[in-house]
Amino acid sequence: MTRVKDVREEQTMYLQSNPNPCPLNFYIRYKYRKKFAAHRDYRLRLNDALARECRSNKLLELKKKWETGEYDNDWSEYLERKADHKADVSDVVESYYMDLEFDGLYRSWTFLTTKLVIDKPTIPLFEYTFSHFLQLEDCVNKLAMKYKYQSENSTPTAQMQFVRRLPDSPQIKLMLN
Q: What highest taxon heads this organism's lineage (predicted)?
């Protein structure tokens, strides 16, 4: 029971001390899941804050806007923001394992297939995966430039004869089958 009282007290203090205690910020701060509970708590905490500070212009203005329905869209906006922070797992990203072959030519093969997750912890993983593509592009461009300036009667180098080979480890075979 004391935990509930502590939360209520904290919410009331939040409305009193926050420079912009609109419902949207209140919902974000306390991570509501249900509209009914969010609206009820906001209304009750606003009344509690007004009981403590009945002359606060900020709180009186909030109460007036709340009663006239100016904050009706805040719940919808809150849900949109919550949805934006959730992971979008509809796309697939393949990570590639690359190693050095023939003096700077990179070869790569599918190493891991994962769902694309758009959130802060996975951004470094995505950047790491993308950096392999940049390295591969650089190497291919260098090879193309070497090939472009080769004489017609020269034989292709080992780099030019390079063929992408899949590794034959049991893990890769399992993934491919």
A: Eukaryota
